[in-house]
UniProtKB/TrEMBL annotation:
PANTHER family: TRANSCRIPTIONAL REGULATOR, MARR FAMILY (PTHR33204), TRANSCRIPTIONAL REGULATORY PROTEIN (PTHR33204:SF18). Residues 14-110 form the HTH hxlR-type domain. The keyword Metal-binding does not apply. The lineage of its organism: Bacteria, Bacillati, Actinomycetota, Actinomycetes, Streptosporangiales. This is Winged helix-turn-helix transcriptional regulator. Signal peptide: none annotated. PROSITE patterns: HTH_HXLR. It comes from Sphaerisporangium aureirubrum.
Length: 121
């Protein structure tokens, strides 16, 4: 059994939406990170994903499962766990590269965002 997830594993000062490289929807990359160390239950995933609703987490997990990145296993007594598939694990290396790139270009990304705010359409 993996260690409990750190409730602060996603730094609110470092929003994932700053990274221009996204894996799936807003939450998919963070869900994949939560599953990196082993299977997790739905309630465990909600701990570090503070801003996600149960509905959105369910939808993201279903999408990741449909895409073959996550496997959903129902154990006796209706205990459900989610785990990365080999295909899902193969995303970890590109995600690490994207995170390293974002960290390297953090100041440039912040400057660009501050100098060019989104305008409503």
């Amino acid at each position: 059994m993996p260690e409990p997830l750190d409730p602060d594993m996603f730094d609110p000062v470092c929003p994932s939406d700053l990274a221009p490289i996204r894996f799936g929807d807003k939450w998919s990359g963070m869900i994949i990170r939560c599953l990196e160390q082993g299977p997790r239950r739905f309630s465990e995933l909600r701990i570090p994903l503070h801003g996600i609703t149960a509905k959105v987490l369910t939808r993201s997990l279903r999408t990741l499962t449909r895409d073959g990145l996550v496997e959903r296993t129902v154990h006796p007594a209706q205990r459900v766990e989610y785990a990365l598939t080999p295909l899902g694990r193969s995303l970890l290396e590109p995600m690490n590269a994207a995170c390293a790139w974002t960290e390297q270009h953090w100041d440039e990304l912040l400057d660009a965002r501050e100098s060019s705010p989104l305008t409503p359409s």
